[in-house]
Design brief:
With about 280 residues, this protein is α/β, with parallel strands linked by helices. Helix content is about 35%, strand content about 20%. Strands 6-1-7-16-8 form a five-stranded mixed beta sheet, with helices on both faces. The chain has a five-stranded mixed beta sheet with strand order 12-11-13-10-14. A two-stranded antiparallel sheet has the order 2-5. Strand 3 and strand 4 form a beta hairpin. Helix 2 crosses helix 8.
Length: about 280
């Protein structure tokens, strides 16, 4: 009886393995993104669309739409490398951990309710290359530059990092802004999982300032018409790159080759100008 059960169990394992292998696409990459304009925008699907008469019709959008500078870059690079993309919406602070896990051959099982944030192959979205992160993950070659800045209200006396001493400062968790703001003597940090909540608290007077990416700040202040906020100082300059699991050389080689070609042809500059020139 035990032998029969073992045989049945072995057959089940073989079938599951075969299904997983069949569903595994070596040319598809799972890309983690969060809502971080102008690098990555996530336009969530509309539940229902309303026609001109106010009548509910079929959904206007069946799935989330992803746009932005980093989206354009990785889609162009993936096309050159012969790769297809599946996006996963993840909080920025969870990206590195999901990259470290890597994607396994039974990835299709990760879509179950037991694993709402499955592992990913690549993370993008204005991600800075740092020595600490390089101990945990690999990066592609840099394709853009950015840096941290201070955002505060019009009329604020804050003009530099030293003015943040004793002040309550908002930062997005998981970003390099946390360490940069924490290095300022006397600062009182308040962590957030997204930038929208930071801006709300700054507006409401719960924060004295924000430390965040300059391009994101410029985009938000311009697009959301935040005339009562201002950018007062730069704190750093950083390289941005795609994040990969440590040791994933085959994927790194494909993406680096594509990025190198895009830099040489001027394609990355054109994409950069498309998203950022209007902010200068």
């Amino acid at each position: 009886m035990n032998k029969k059960l073992l045989v049945v169990f072995a057959i089940i394992i073989i079938i599951i393995g075969a299904i997983a292998f069949y569903m595994w696409d070596p040319n598809k990459i799972i890309v983690g993104v969060d809502n971080n304009p102008p690098y990555t925008f996530i336009d969530q699907p509309t539940a229902v669309a309303i026609d001109a008469k106010g009548v509910a019709v079929t959904p206007a959008q069946q799935s989330a739409a992803y746009i932005g500078f980093d989206i354009d870059v990785i889609e162009a690079a993936a096309k050159k490398a012969g790769l297809t993309i599946e996006y996963r919406n993840l909080p920025f602070g969870a990206m590195i951990a999901q990259i470290e896990k890597g994607r396994k051959i039974n990835q299709f099982l990760a879509k179950s309710s037991y694993n709402p944030a499955p592992a990913i192959d690549v993370a993008i979205g204005g991600i800075s290359v740092t020595a600490d992160r390089q101990k945990l993950v690999d990066f592609t070659i840099p394709y853009a530059k950015g840096g941290a800045c201070i955002v505060t209200t019009q009329g604020s006396a804050i003009t530099s990092a030293t003015d943040l001493s004793g002040k309550i400062v908002g930062v997005e968790l998981g970003t390099t802004m946390v360490a940069q703001a924490n290095a300022i003597k006397g600062v009182k940090l308040q962590g957030y999982h997204n930038q929208s909540d930071m801006f709300i608290d700054l507006y409401d007077g719960k924060l004295n300032a924000l430390v965040m990416d300059k391009m994101s700040a410029e985009y938000d202040l311009k697009e959301r018409k935040m005339a009562n906020l201002k950018i007062v100082n730069m704190l750093s300059n950083e390289d941005f790159a795609m994040v990969l699991k440590k040791g994933n050389k085959p994927l790194a080689d494909k993406l680096n080759k594509a990025l190198t070609e895009m830099q040489a042809s001027g394609e990355i500059k054109r994409l950069y100008d498309k998203w950022f020139t209007a902010l200068q």
